[in-house]
Amino acid sequence: MVESYSKNANHNMRRPVVKDEIVDFMRTRQKPVAGALKELEAFARKENIPIIPHETVAYFRLLLQALQPKKILEIGTAIGFSALLMAENAPNAQITTIDRNEEMIDFAKKNLAKYDLRKQITLLEGDAVDVLRDLTETYDFVFMDSAKSKYIVFLPRILELLEVGGVVVLDDIFQGGDVAKDIMEVRRGQRTIYRGLQNLFNATLNHPDLTASLVPLGDGILMIRKNAETVTLPDPSSF
Ligand SMILES: C[S@@+](CC[C@H](N)C(=O)[O-])C[C@H]1O[C@@H](n2cnc3c(N)ncnc32)[C@H](O)[C@@H]1O
Q: Fewer CB within 10 Å of terminal CB in the chain, N or C?
């Protein structure tokens, strides 16, 4: 029994931003996962651990096979599902993945020891705030799948670590549709996340040195390509 995630966790994952029947279609018609990923997906579903949904899995397969990144950074390992998916579809990539939750780290260590057969994945333990500061290498693909309110906090450092032409994917950015509402219509407990996401959109969607796209998969992903060596994000207080 996993303690980190209750039955009521992952509230926004049960508020799809796309029609239910289309979500169902995407989840049932696209090639299922197999082997280790199937086992981990079933475990995550049973224990309410928020791994990427199947429509995002199918998209990641195609994206990673097409891009073939060599150096991947992930924030938010959980049990290692998305890291193993990326390893499978970018077999020449080295993947660094970060998590701070001890329970998830224990599961991830066991799963990576068992299933990361090409030894592509390195798990770094700790809060991303600290771990990111100490990284010295650069990356050509970054997957951010951690606390949403912190995306805008981590992004300046991520953009320093990202090569020109590299891509960042940020998961769960629609907040179950709340981002399109006025803040007064958003539950009080959700407003810090709402503000963080609005600052993220304000900083990136029209930036001259970034190409950005919002994609309605799962609870939404934001994809960003870095187009210049130095990218300075505007100060959120200027919006
Ligand atoms: C949505 S889960 C990741 C799921 C995983 N990417 C997958 O799809 O298989 C989010 C994870 O991010 C981790 N996390 C959240 N904030 C973090 C932070 N500031 N530093 C490190 N890990 C963090 C949590 O502990 C949790 O395991």
A: N
